[in-house]
């Protein structure tokens, strides 16, 4: 079971089409099911009608979901149940800190903020609010390692190392990955100060609820994976297999994204756009794109994907 989960902040661009095609090919190579989930929990960033535009673009490319589309904005009750479970376990707590206060606390510790990187939360509210009003809810990574994390064994080499706070995992393309979530991220947000659900919690709950077994998405999301694995283990949910695809870069070497003004993918000839997406994934281009159908091209790439990722779901 695979899925494509776009945020409706604009139409698909060349980079998001790569992720969509990869996830579809992975599911089809395994003769599995492919889902589409609209990740619209960050409502201030969503654009009215963008979800329907994305669905129309996918259909133009022959990428049709096998089950009805799901919208995250309609699933708040499930996220609340998950948060309640974490609170009951002592693995989530309210936080009164503003972003400026977090940056000031980290700067006082000698940690300067890097470009495009968030500073790890220093745990200011972990021991209580001390009379301050709560703003957000955070996952207690330190207590997780003490209460939940199993030690790795020869039979489970990717188990969390509770002594070093290391979380190893294996990506089907990138290979073995390791992150110390405590030092790299700290206690991350589950519910935001504005009352909106954080991506990390929503995606974990939805992947489990939809029985997603294999996640294929852009490489920029790889560093989110350890946080999601922690939540899966804390909530008693299965951990899917992960594959993170190459990023499409702009002329400045930055990741192509809606935030930096990436143009909508040109679908005047869907096969041309799909050919470019396939080549970004390291798949062979189809010859004579003016005479081959989208259906035949997709079938060609399914076979190529199977040869590259012979451990497909």
TrEMBL record:
A motif ('KMSKS' region) lies at residues 255-259. Its cofactor is Zn(2+). GO terms for biological process: glutamyl-tRNA aminoacylation; tRNA modification. A motif ('HIGH' region) lies at residues 6-16. Keywords: Aminoacyl-tRNA synthetase, ATP-binding, Ligase, Metal-binding, Nucleotide-binding, Protein biosynthesis, Zinc. Its EC number is 6.1.1.-. This is Glutamyl-Q tRNA(Asp) synthetase. It comes from Acidovorax temperans. The gene is gluQ.
């Amino acid at each position: 079971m695979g899925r494509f989960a776009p945020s409706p902040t604009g139409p698909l661009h060349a980079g998001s089409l790569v992720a969509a095609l990869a996830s579809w090919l992975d599911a089809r190579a395994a003769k599995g099911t492919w889902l589409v989930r609209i990740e619209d929990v960050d409502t201030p960033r969503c654009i009215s009608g963008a979800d329907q535009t994305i669905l129309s673009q996918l259909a133009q490319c022959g990428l049709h979901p096998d089950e009805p589309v799901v919208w995250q904005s309609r699933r708040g009750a499930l996220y609340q149940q998950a948060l309640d479970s974490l609170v009951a376990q002592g693995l989530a707590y309210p936080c009164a800190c503003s972003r400026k206060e977090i940056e000031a606390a980290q700067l006082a510790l000698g940690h300067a903020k890097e470009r495009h990187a968030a500073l790890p939360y220093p745990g200011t509210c972990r021991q209580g609010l001390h009379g301050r009003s709560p703003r957000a809810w955070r996952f207690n990574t330190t207590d997780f390692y003490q209460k939940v994390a199993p030690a790795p064994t020869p039979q489970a080499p990717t188990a969390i190392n509770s002594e070093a706070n290391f979380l190893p995992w294996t990506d089907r393309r990138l290979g073995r990955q390791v992150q110390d979530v405590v030092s790299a991220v700290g206690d991350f947000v589950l519910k935001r100060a504005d009352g909106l659900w954080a991506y990390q919690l929503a995606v974990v709950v939805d992947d489990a609820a939809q029985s997603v077994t294999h996640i294929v998405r852009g490489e920029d999301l790889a560093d989110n994976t350890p946080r999601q694995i922690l939540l899966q283990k804390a909530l008693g949910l299965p951990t899917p297999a992960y594959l993170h695809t190459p990023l499409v870069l702009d002329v400045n070497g930055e990741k192509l994204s809606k935030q930096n003004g990436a143009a909508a993918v040109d679908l005047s000839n869907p096969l041309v756009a799909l050919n470019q997406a396939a080549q970004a994934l390291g798949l062979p281009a189809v010859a004579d794109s003016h005479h081959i159908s989208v259906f035949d091209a997709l079938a060609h790439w399914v076979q190529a994907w199977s040869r590259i990722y012979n451990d497909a779901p």
